[in-house]
Write a structure and sequence with these properties.
single chain, about 400 residues, alpha+beta, Ribosomal Protein S5, domain 2, Alpha-Beta Plaits, 3 domains, six-stranded mixed sheet, four-stranded antiparallel sheet, 11 helices, about 20% strand, globular, GHMP_kinase_N_dom, cytoplasm
Length: about 400
């Protein structure tokens, strides 16, 4: 066990004087396919080796005690009357239980200790990892009949309905369904999925964290959705079969460019190109052509910067600084935008020197310290014990 897993396991054992089951669900990165999910497009996430650990054991009938090591808080919830608590982390657990109960299942009280090693605010989906590990563990312990895709849908409903965040399914799907050395091409319309190889021998997946999150993120996200919907509404008069930008060809968009608001046109152009780019990127992976894949990452960033306009000076600087570096195969901003991390494919031997160079320039120009995280691909939710999990 790594240090985080050991810390969670030991805390449970010391607190409750018994041995727990220990489960893990990973965070995720999305290599390409940004802002395509709510346009019925494709995404290309991978589970990573950092995530959330859950030590858990059903109680002997008494109310369960839930402990968060990262927030240094403890709650004793009443599972017969589920309602939001002031401790926000506990609501992600309650929301999952709420969905199981709505499905007609009784979840017995349990003690648990929760801890993770995902950097806070880096956009690696710690909330989805928490929901996923709880859903997976409770399915296993209560012998419920859910497979992994069904658990991803349950976790998404939990966040939509109990937490009140209208997120897509990508984060939970990647956390539950990830495979080491592979990415998942997820069709956000049908939820069909396919694995593609990500052979990174000699390379590292490196995240550079800007340390900023601009306040525009929430309002601009909603505005982008509205702009995409406006483009779809206009183009439907020429092709009623269009349901989303997934159904729009670049030729159709260009044919009616003059009829669209210039901003709406730019938003639609980015999404249509990004959906095509994501499909082409999986062809690159099939051929083992990471150079071409990396070029597409740079193209995605340019689209997010100039057409979708969800980047920020900090992200743009980090991508610009690596664009001409032969050690960097590809780079782009990752996530919703206006802060967070860039994701980079970097030659292994050059990582430390690259970070030193970027950190110096970044602090000089932005007045902030730069953080770096190395991640590797990993398997999805699992039981960290010798016995095999029962979830399909």
């Amino acid at each position: 066990m790594n240090d985080t897993a050991q810390r969670v396991y030991d805390h449970f054992q010391n607190t409750f004087a018994t041995e727990p089951h220990l489960y893990f669900s990973p965070g995720r990165v999305n290599l390409i396919g940004e802002h395509t999910d709510y346009n019925d497009g494709f995404v290309l996430p991978a589970a990573i080796d950092k995530g959330i650990y859950l030590a858990i054991l059903p109680t002997a009938g008494e109310p369960g005690r839930w402990i968060s090591l990262d927030f240094n808080e403890e709650v004793t919830p009443d599972l017969t009357r589920i309602a939001p608590l002031p401790q926000e982390w506990a609501n992600y657990v309650l929301g999952v239980i709420d969905q199981f109960q709505k499905g007609g299942h009784t979840i017995a009280p349990f003690h648990c200790v929760i801890g993770g090693n995902l950097p806070v605010g880096a956009g690696l989906s710690s909330s989805a990892a928490l929901e996923s590990v709880v859903a997976y563990a409770l399915t296993d312990l209560n012998e419920l009949d859910y497979d992994r895709p069904a658990l991803a849908l349950l976790a998404q409903r939990s966040e939509n309905q109990f937490i009140g965040v209208q997120c897509g399914i990508m984060d939970m799907f990647a956390s539950l369904m990830g495979r080491e050395n592979q990415v998942i091409r997820l069709d956000c319309r049908s939820l069909d999925y396919q694995y593609f190889p990500l052979h990174t021998e000699g390379l590292r997946i490196v995240l550079f964290d800007t340390g900023v999150k601009h306040s525009l993120a929430g309002t601009e996200y909603n505005l982008r959705r509205q702009e995409c919907e406006a483009g779809v509404a206009h183009l439907q008069q020429y092709d009623p079969s269009i349901k989303s930008l997934r159904d729009v060809s670049l030729s159709l968009l260009e044919a009616h460019r003059g009829e669209l608001d210039p901003v709406v046109y730019k938003r639609c152009k980015y999404v249509v190109e990004e959906i095509a780019r994501t499909l082409a990127a999986t062809d690159d992976l099939q051929r083992g052509d990471l150079a071409s894949f990396g070029t597409r990452m740079f193209e995605t960033h340019a689209g997010l910067q100039y057409d979708y306009e969800v980047s920020c000076p900090e992200l743009d600087l980090l991508v610009e600084l690596v664009k001409q570096d032969a050690a960097v195969i590809g780079a782009r901003m990752m996530g919703g935008g206006f802060g967070g991390c860039t994701i980079n494919l970097v030659r292994e031997e050059a990582v430390e020197a690259l970070f030193a160079r970027l950190a110096t320039v970044y602090e000089e120009k932005m007045g902030r310290k730069l953080a770096m995280y190395n991640v590797t691909t990993a398997d999805g939710s699992n039981l960290q014990e010798v016995s095999a999990p029962s979830v399909k």
